[in-house]
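pasting for ref. prot 1 ->
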Amino acid sequence: MKIISWNVNGIRAVHKRGDWKFFEQSDADIFCVQETKAHPDQLPPDLRSPEGYFSYFDHSKGRKGYSGVGIYSKKQPTKVVEAMGVPEYDQEGRLLVAYYEKFALLNVYFPNGGGGPARLKYKLEFYEHFLKFIEKLKKQTHVIFCGDVNTAHEEIDLARPKENEKNTGFLPEERAWLDKLVSKGWVDVYRSAYPEQTGAYTYWDMKTFARSRNVGWRIDYFFVDEKLADKVKGIKIHKEILGSDHCPIELDIDL
């Protein structure tokens, strides 16, 4: 099974520029997108209901053109849920849970901690609610989650760790949550497969043309519960795919 995750930073813009062809060429079993910045009603037919796929979306309940996630799946899930069950953290369109016969897949666009102390607090509280949610879920079924976590875990996961120690995305309290996640048995698939790989990033700042210099961050992840770790067949960062300030990541897993 091939599962792809991509923060598209505006799905309509990616489509308009022609970069959505990656979806068509990927032949993924499940294709997850984050930061769609669109209500489903705003999408053209080939984005809303592409041939051969069932499609599901969650969008911001307040701000237009903000946040949003989507799942395209060749196989119809048994059910799809748009929330963790905490209204304050379910209103921004950041989560889809697709349930299948043998596992649950969560596509998540985690909050960015920028914009002041209140927003960082919101991000950290979202993290904690999410961890409680998946800890409970893994007692019922196997769990995979993917998406833009908006935090680089270790120094190896960004090009300039020292310069970013006091910046959101690499703050000690943000990184501590990832430590906690791993301590509970959740497996960062890429780092598990490539423990010493440097220069492996999934996000680059567009304003500073950082991508051409590979001054990036690895903030997009696939995590699996520890019982699924031996089912993983491969993990790939598609750094060659343009169209967003993030690139797609791909999980191959035997399910």
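and prot 2 ->
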Amino acid sequence: MLTHVRLDTRSPNDFIKILNEKNKNIQEIFLSKISELTKTVDVKVMMGDSTVTSQKTFDPKQVMDYFQNINNNLKDWSLQDVTTSNNEDLRRIFTKFEVMVGNYLISGHISIQFHVLLYYKPEQRVIDCQKELSDIVDLTKNKEQELSDNSDQFVLNKLKERGYKDFDHQKLFEILYEKDELREQIYEEIEKDADVDFKELSETKKKLFNELDSLLIETYQISSVLIDDPRLISGEEGCLCTFDLEFIKNNNREGLFDPRKMSNDIKENISKRLDEFKLILKL
């Protein structure tokens, strides 16, 4: 009977059934811990339209600390660092670990996946920044439209001041096309005459956007359910706890092996490793 063992997969083998039962117990403890660590609290936040409302959130750092504590207690396991991945509004905290038992490799993966929702801090400065930005947008829009509507005439007047007279619009564009420095000077003078410093307004707008970014607050949303790898990859919220058992031959992982050929000592030590992990989950 050749098999690849992802614990929780059905098997007629008695030992694999025992491991599956242990795995089920581990998952139940893990889910209970994650449910406790991701209990939500209400926080006040501000919407984009300045409405203040209440939003539920939890603290991901508690989960990171819990995962780190698990790693710290897996003394002779090979470990991956506790990692947070970002993908727009989807975030994942995870770690992986493995240990050899004879020629068999036990590898585990725990993670949570949750969504991030952005709001503003409920502060007056958010409203002030939005008002300043709105005023800048309106001012520049009106001035740019005014310059656009009268651009030809503005340019003609500036050229006449420089002695260019009695030419049509085609000639106007030829002059501007050929004389880069003249063109830049004329447009700088036109913007100056418009009583609007577009460069300064642009810098102010950039600073206001940066300030608004600094006033953002993240809230976190998760479902306290166990999910599997496909659901994790598809972006579902929840937590994952999986174990795989593989046979190592010539430093290669064998996808299939016969659990009936495992010695009693190997079986006992594999069981002890899972029991050890279960105890660490409760710390």
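The chain is about 50% helix and 25% strand.
Residues 5-122+217-281 form one domain.
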